[in-house]
Amino acid sequence: MAIRPLVILPDPMLRKVSAPIGDITPEIRKLAEDMLDTMYDAPGIGLAAIQIGEPVRLVTLDVSKKAEEGEQQAREPVVFINPEVTWSSKELSSYEEGCLSIPEYYEEVERPARVKVSYRDLDGKAQEIEADGLLATCLQHEIDHLNGVLFIDYLSRLKRERVTKRFAKAAKRDSAA
Ligand code: K1U
Ligand code: ZN
Is residue 142 among the annotated active site residues? Predict the structure, then answer.
């Protein structure tokens, strides 16, 4: 079990575009394990590899009820390799999003209500899912991370600048301490 430190706003790493994964090597399997450990420990319901400083297109998710309640039982972890949105609905839905890289900051974000996502699983098998609700929101949030996009990018410039400044100040304070 390895819990890795999270990359926090305004670290420029969060703006990197992550590279596609080729072969599913033991290193990729270990990275997926570390991501799940880190995600459950945070706790969170999703994580992109870039959030622990690894710029590759790997996402972990668990939006099961138990995971939301922070319980150990009945976990439903899913690993997405090279996930891609192949279709999104015209209908939108709004959800109060959070981000482990922007701790304790939540805002409503509007996104397509339903998406189809293609990806490979850890066995290298091609998969496609159709998602709605929290799963659709979370998948879009994590795929955005792979492209250097954060949920604050969907907010007004005023809100985005305010939160970025707040985290920049905190980072400066922490580095001086
Ligand atoms: O990518 C991340 O930073 C993880 C993020 C995922 C996410 C949450 C909500 C909407 C969209 C994407 C989180 O997991 S934030 C933490 C969180 O939402 C949560 C934590 C514990 C229990 C339930 C939810
Ligand atoms: Zn996030």
Answer: yes
